[in-house]
Write a structure and sequence with these properties.
With about 500 residues, this protein is α/β, with parallel strands linked by helices. The chain contains 15 helices and 24 strands. The chain has two domains: about 280 residues, Aldehyde Dehydrogenase, Chain A, domain 1; about 190 residues, Aldehyde Dehydrogenase, Chain A, domain 2, CATH 3.40.309. The structure holds adenosine-5'-diphosphate. Its EC number is 1.2.1.3.
């Protein structure tokens, strides 16, 4: 049998064993067709290793394993036990924090400090949903004295979970926590750019004691394994996080196969609004974090920055200084804030947008060029004097690039902020409570952060208005994506007709 693991090395962990197989039925196995693909280190552009590639045949095998578990062992498992497995997995993730974070930095390029925070959040999500497992309750509905009616929240079945590369482990946790807590089984396909950390988590899934087939992890390409999963006739639900373009394809695949349920968390072009009365230093810190955190590779990145005219010039000048202070470089250094973009493709796309912005006549306040000569690093880039018609103000760039424009009134900024096909997140910076709540009410976005930005939490629902998606992840709201209501109604009296 082809090898399903390899010895790798990071500066944090030294040598470690990295699984490279598909995780199906609690075992690592090679793909049926024997195909593998390379995983690139975005900091060095060198190959880290190769992992097995799932094709349609492997998707069939993984879905069959998940179906068998769903109809068998998992159905017989009590909600309390489901919760215990999840809590155990959260504990194991914390115990392996250094390893998981280091692999995330190696594979994705995110700084080790941020990767550690991600792993902490992953454990938080999984433990939180472990707590929900035995609190999924129905209702008794009194319609008249002769009937007894109750509802149950039943699992949907086999869930195909397709995740992106920007938060490989965190997206893994969002996609397994609520699905597993509510009694579903899962086949999760990681992004082809970042398959490594989820395979280590897969090993922990087995160690946590989950029965075989409950959580299966496959590595492969979107157009092959992802497409097969979203069109599969025996997958009951697909949950996807990624680009709006692919989100549409997934909906189409669901519609033309078995009308599987769909939840989508897609792109964004989120406005971050700074009023004249804001605490300017705090606002700059949050705007900086809002766009440059995770190298701008966040669906909720605050990429449209609107500053009220009274503080515009001062803001732009101070924000420039703040952005220049962000340390860009080797993700394994503890004070690095910004690592490389994830791939050559992403690097090229972002640099293309930067060229567009320059050509359109926006002012480069800082950045706009490659950082260093190796790896996919891009300087933190700020454009000012950006107008609404420019591509850099309209389209999701998914990189360390933000566009600043000036506004005068509250009415005007609500209109401008909503002038987007997206509606994922938004930010407001002001000391005036009335302004804050009025503007929050006016914004068409799934999340509004006031005097902060990018502060996601496992208890708080997250998701998009408009073309940013459908359904909510995190919090109690996510449970609705993974349950369906069964109404059971019983006649107590004699026949009616
Ligand atoms: P990006 O453009 O940032 O790489 P994508 O939306 O293409 O993001 O990818 C997110 C996830 O969707 C990845 O796991 C990828 O493999 C998967 N994917 C890409 N194309 C398809 C598709 N046609 N069907 C299903 N999944 C896909």
């Amino acid at each position: 049998m082809a090898s399903v693991s390899v010895e790798l090395h990071t500066p944090i962990t030294g040598k470690f064993t990295q699984p490279t197989g598909l995780f199906i039925n609690n075992e690592f196995v090679p793909g049926v067709d024997g195909r593998t693909f390379e995983v690139i280190n975005p900091s060095t552009e060198e190959v880290i290793t190769s992992v097995h590639e799932a094709t349609e045949k492997d998707v069939d095998i993984a879905v069959a394993a998940a179906r068998k578990a769903f109809e068998g062992t998992w159905k017989q498992t009590t909600p309390e036990q489901r919760g215990k497995y999840l809590v155990k997995l959260a504990d194991l993730i914390e115990e392996n924090k250094d390893l998981l974070a280091a692999v995330e930095s190696l594979d994705n390029g995110k700084s080790i400090t941020m990767a550690r925070a991600d792993v902490g959040a992953v454990a938080g999500v999984i433990r939180y949903y472990g707590g929900w497992a035995d609190k999924i309750e129905g209702k008794v509905i009194d319609t008249n004295p002769d009937t007894f009616t109750y509802t149950k929240q039943e699992p949907i079945g086999v869930c195909g979970q397709i995740i992106p590369w920007n938060f490989p482990l965190l997206m893994f946790s969002w996609k397994i926590g609520p699905a597993i807590a509510t009694g579903n089984t899962v086949v999760i396909k990681t992004a082809e750019q970042t398959p490594l950390s989820a395979l280590i988590a897969a090993r922990l899934i087995k160690e946590a004691g989950f029965p075989p087939g409950v959580i299966n992890v496959i590595t492969g390409f979107g157009k092959i394994a992802g497409a097969a999963l979203s069109a599969h006739m025996d997958v009951d639900k697909v949950a996807f996080t990624g680009s709006t373009v692919v989100g549409r394809q997934i909906m189409k695949a669901a519609a033309s196969s078995n009308l599987k349920k769909v939840t989508l968390e897609l792109g964004g072009k989120s406005p971050n609004i700074i009023f004249n009365d804001a605490d300017i230093e705090n606002a700059i810190s949050w705007v900086n974090f809002g766009i440059f955190f995770n190298h701008g590779q966040c669906c909720c990145a605050g990429s449209r920055v609107y500053v009220q005219s009274g503080i515009y010039d001062k803001f732009v000048e101070r924000f420039k200084a703040r952005a220049l202070a962000n340390k860009v470089g080797d993700p394994f250094l503890p004070d690095t804030f910004q690592g490389p973009q994830v791939s050559q493709l992403q690097y090229d796309r972002i640099m293309g947008y930067i060229q567009e912005g320059k050509k359109a006549g926006a002012t480069v306040v800082t950045g706009g060029e490659r950082h260093g000569d190796k790896g996919y690093f891009i300087q933190p880039t700020i454009f000012s004097n950006v107008t609404e018609d420019m591509k850099i103000m309209q389209e999701e760039i998914f990189g360390p690039v933000c566009s600043i424009a000036k506004f005068d009134t509250e009415e005007e900024i609500i209109k401008t902020a909503n002038n987007s096909i997206y509606g994922l997140a938004s930010g407001i910076h002001t000391k005036d409570l009335n302004t804050a709540i009025r503007v929050a009410n006016g914004l068409r976005a799934g999340t509004v952060w006031i005097n902060q930005y990018n502060m996601l939490h496992h208890q708080i629902p997250f998701g998009g208005y408009k073309e940013s998606g459908m359904g909510r992840e995190l919090g109690e709201a996510a449970l609705a994506n993974y349950t369906q209501v069964k109404s059971v109604s019983m006649r107590l009296g004699n026949a009616l007709f």
